[in-house]
Every structure is written in structure tokens, then in C-alpha cells.
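We store chain and fold; thus.
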Amino acid sequence: MKKNGLVIFGSKGTALELEDYITSLLPDEFSFVKRVYIEDDLIAKNNLTAYLNDADVQLQYIFGVMDFEWRKKALDQIAKYSNFTPYSFIHPNAFVASTAVIGKGVFIHANVSVSTECVIEDHVLLHMNSSVGHHSKISSHATLLPGVRVSGNVTIGERCIIGSNSVVFQGVSIGDDNRIDCLSYIKSDLSENMITFAAMPTSKPRRKS
């Protein structure tokens, strides 16, 4: 009989929340759930080699860390293991429209709303109480922190981090690798690789150095 194991990348914070959700809400889903710190040679140091070499073990993973540099470090190390596959978790208190498309390795927190015909790409993290309006796209490895409000027809690029309780207005396009401060109001398009500070509302977003 195959064993189904889950690896959560991350040591605390969101990774711990994920572990609590999965073990309490889905107690029979996995034979084991293991939180793993991302480091060099993470496979050997976290005793994953035996699982990956065991034909009777189906091993899945999900990220509990939002920083893409850490994610990339993990992805580079596990790329050669075809039997180590991404897992998506959607909290039962979240609403996801039947017409929404959800990618691989997605974590949708409690009280999140994903509206009609949204696209949520791979490895996106939607924290609690955030919402994504109709026909919006959240690109891979993006993170919406708690309370973010994304209006309809919005595009958020890859690896973006949108700070808590920020609002992205209707039809806005945000380029890849943006960092947006908490409590920000994004009313116009942002090019890639920008930083937006809510504490300086009269200043323009600046390009990251």
C-alpha cells in the first residue's frame, strides 16, 4: 500500500499554520507531514532520500515561505525527482468560484475569496481574508498578505508580494517582482521590479536597486 507524505518547506510562521491546518482538517490525507528548513543539501539533511527512493511512497510538497530566493533554492534541489510533486491546499472556509483555475502548489488560506474566472498560477500564496476579483490573474510565486483586496480584471506578475490590507484597483496591471507595502492603494499600472511605499503617499514607486 502506497504511503502519501507531505513536505512543507519552511520552519515556522506560514509553514506552521499549514501544518496545523492539514493535520487538523485532513487527518487521514497523509501518512506523514514534515516541515523542512530550506538549506544546502536539504534532501539528505532532512532525511528525504529514503522516501524519494521508495516506490511505495508518494511525496508531495508545498511552500510555507514566500521569499522566492528560498523557494528557488528548494526547487533547484528537488528538480531531478519526478516523484516529488506539488500539492495545493485550499482551506474549507475559503470560497473559490467553480470557474476559477487553480495551479499547482497553491495555498489558499481561511476566509479567502477567489471570484469568477480568475487564474491563480502555480505556487501562489493567498493569506487569510484576502480576495481576488473576477477575471483577475495572480501569476506564479506571487503572495497576497492578509486582507489584500484585488479588484476585477487585475493582473499581478510573478514573484510579487502585496502587503497586508492593500487595495489594487480595477483593471490594474502589476509587473513581475514588485514589492508593495501594507495599506497601499494601487490605482495605476506598475512596471516590473518596483517598490511601493504606503508611508510616502505623495512619492512615486521606485525601482529596486
